[in-house]
């Protein structure tokens, strides 16, 4: 994979997202590429990537699903009991997931958030570690907003768009997801709502993610 030599931002065009997702699974959970199955993304995050996954409130507005911390240092989090923000010290390789933000949606949101943060660590940690040379006092991290980004224009938006695109492909690998969808009879010009619900439950993702993935795989 090519990287910007000055800032270490990886060059990953959307046409390569499935390839990157497959590379990730080949390394951390290869059997998901052989048969349809839910991907245990929290287990992969902890045991495969060695990330410390913690469930902590991040904002009062619940507009941040998750955060990946790349270097030791201070991070601002929200204390809902006190109704105040607090600055706490965290270690590198920590992933924070806001339990209240993901609770507003479903289990699929939590899994997608974890996959999203895994992509950040897997592909973007060199960029953030480089930033530590410039301002070493504070932890280097990325916050992942509830709202998906529009057209990417700067380095961090480019990497956020990559994580948005690759994460669901990890949870729903093209070959095995297609196999499962075809078994359920998903087809054009058909009422696929029951099949979409079944796929969402099986892969432990949201129905919306399934619909998008079916279109990406040219099944809808």
Write the layout of secondary structure elements.
Layout: H1 17-28, H2 41-48, E1 52-55, E2 64-69, E3 73-79, E4 84-90, E5 94-97, H3 99-103, H4 107-131, E6 141-145, H5 155-171, H6 174-183, H7 193-203, H8 207-216
Parallel strand pairs: 1-5
Antiparallel strand pairs: 2-5, 2-6, 3-4
Describe the protein.
By secondary structure, the chain is of the alpha+beta class. The strands form 2 sheets. The chain has a 4-stranded mixed beta sheet. Strands 3-4 form a two-stranded antiparallel sheet. The chain has helices at residues 17-28, 41-48, 99-103, 107-131, 155-171, 174-183, 193-203, 207-216; strands spanning 52-55, 64-69, 73-79, 84-90, 94-97, 141-145. It has 8 helices and 6 strands; from the N terminus they run H-H-E-E-E-E-E-H-H-E-H-H-H-H. Helix 1 crosses helix 5 (155-171), helix 4 packs antiparallel against helix 5 and helix 7 (193-203) packs across helix 8 (207-216). The model has no long low-confidence stretch (mean pLDDT 87).
What features would you highlight for this structure?
6 strands, two-stranded antiparallel ribbon, globular, single chain, alpha+beta, four-stranded mixed sheet, 220 residues
Taking strands numbered 1, 2, ... along the chain, how are they ordered across the largest sheet? 1-5-2-6
Distance between the termini: 30 Å
Continuous helix count? 8
The total strand number stands at 6
Rg measurement, Å:
18 Å
Unreliable parts? none
User: Globular, elongated, flat, extended or rod-shaped: what is the shape?
Assistant: globular
Order of helices and strands: HHEEEEEHHEHHHH
Secondary structure: helix percent:
40-55%
- Mean pLDDT value: 87
- Per DSSP, what share of the residues sits in E-state strands of 2 or more residues? 15-25%
For the biggest sheet, the summary is: 4 strands, mixed
């Amino acid at each position: 994979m090519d990287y910007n030599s000055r800032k270490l931002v990886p060059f990953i065009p959307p046409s390569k997202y499935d390839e990157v997702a497959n590379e990730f699974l080949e390394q951390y959970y290869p059997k998901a590429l052989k048969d349809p199955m839910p991907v245990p993304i929290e287990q992969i995050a902890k045991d495969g990537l060695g990330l410390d996954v913690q469930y902590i409130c991040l904002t009062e507005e619940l507009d941040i699903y998750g955060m990946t911390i790349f270097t030791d240092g201070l991070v601002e989090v929200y204390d809902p009991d006190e109704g105040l923000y607090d600055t706490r010290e965290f270690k590198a390789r920590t992933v924070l997931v806001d339990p209240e933000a993901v609770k507003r949606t479903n289990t699929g949101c939590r899994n997608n958030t974890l996959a999203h943060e895994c992509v950040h660590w897997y592909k973007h940690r060199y960029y953030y570690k480089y930033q530590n040379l410039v301002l070493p006092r504070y932890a280097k991290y990325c916050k992942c907003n509830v709202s998906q980004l529009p057209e990417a224009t700067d380095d961090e938006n480019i990497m956020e768009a990559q994580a948005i695109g690759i994460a669901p492909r990890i949870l729903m690998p093209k070959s095995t997801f297609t196999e499962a969808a075809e078994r359920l009879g998903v087809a054009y010009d058909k009422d696929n709502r029951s099949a979409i619900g079944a796929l969402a439950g099986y892969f432990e993702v949201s129905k919306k993610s399934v619909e998008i993935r079916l279109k990406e795989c040219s099944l809808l």
